[in-house]
Amino acid sequence: MKVGILALQGDFREHEAVFAAMGVETEYVRRPEELEKVDGLVIPGGESTAISKLLKKWGLFSPLQRRARDGFPVFGTCAGMILMAVEVSNTVPTLELMDISVDRNAYGRQIESFEGELSINGTDSPLSDEAVTGVFIRAPQVSEVRDGVEVLATHEGLPVLLRQDNLLAATFHPELTDNRGIHRYFIDQLVGS
Ligand code: GLN
Fold first, then answer.
1. Where are the domains of the chain?
2. Does domain 2-191 match CATH 3.40.390.10?
3. Could you tell me if the CB of 78 is within 6 A of ligand 1?
4. Which parts of the chain register pLDDT below 70?
5. Neighbouring residues of 89: CB distance < 8 A, sequence distance ≥ 6
């Protein structure tokens, strides 16, 4: 098993470090041929407008969209989540994969970035053993969750970790804390299934 990390812009190195600590093999993805060789893909945090443009520039946009709609596991954090959403408040061409609406920068400017405790939904969740702190950096808010999307965790009542079949998305940055539970969840529940 090999996990791809989209390495166009953003904090892809931090995701690589988490997987390395877990002993999971990874490969950076920058071209369509590289996408073919991996069993799942992480779309990191960064700037969604930049990542969106680069996906098009490098010919990855349509192949990734097609594969993800066909069941290929994708995990997006922050900007990565924005790129997965079907609808975004502020026009960024997205891959339109997960049936949610998202407001970019909904908490305000950089200075409003914060850390907060997350509530995990369901006592039998594979995530419930871990107290999870979320790092929110110019984070988006999910304004609408439609049928088929499961809310795995919330922060102050707002959905912050969501799953729809082969897709996992976080408004925050699990790659910036020591907790590996969410990366583990992606590997065990989505890539390994
Ligand atoms: N505000 C960024 C965007 O709209 C996301 C920030 C992040 O990934 N930390 O793309």
1. 2-191
2. no
3. yes
4. 129-131, 193
5. 101, 102, 103, 104, 106, 143
Q: What is the pLDDT of residue 113?
A: 87
| Residue type for position 112 | E
Cα(140) to centroid(ligand 1), Å: 7
Question: Which atom of ligand 1 is found nearest the CA of 104?
Answer: 4
Helix, strand or coil, per DSSP, at residue 33: helix
Residues annotated catalytic, as ranges:
78, 173, 175
The helix (H) or strand (E) run that includes residue 69 is: helix 61-69
**CA of 87: how far to CAs of 3, 53, 118, in Å?**
26, 17, 24
CA-proximal residue: ligand 1, atom 5 (nearest): 79
82 lines ligand 1 (CB under 6 A): yes
What is the whole-number distance in angstroms between the Cα of residue 65 and the centre of ligand 1? 20
Contact yes or no for 49/77 (Cβ under 8 A): no
